[in-house]
Amino acid sequence: METKHDQILKYIADLEIGSKISVRQTAKVLQVSEGTAYRAIKDAENQGLVSTVERVGTIRIERKTRESIEKLTFDTVVNIVDGQVLGGKSGLSRTLNHFVIGAMEINAMKRYIGANDLMIVGNRESVHEYALKEGAAVLITGGFNTSERVKLLADQTHLPVITTSYDTFTVAAKINRAIYDQLIKKEIVHVSDIMIPFSETQFVFGYDSPKRWHELNHSTAHSRFPVVDQQMKVIGIVAMKDIIRDQDVHTIEEVMTSMPLVVNPTTSVAAAAHRMIWEGIDGLPVVDEQQHLLGMITRRDVLKALQMIQQQPQMGETIEDIVSSQLKDYSDDNNYVFQFNVTPQMSDYLGSVSHGVMTSMITTVCRRVLNHLRRSDLVVDNLSFYFFKPVQLEQTVTVQLKILEMTRRNGKMDIELFVDGQLCGKALLNAQFIDRY
Question: So what's the pLDDT on residue 130?
Answer without folding.
Answer: 92
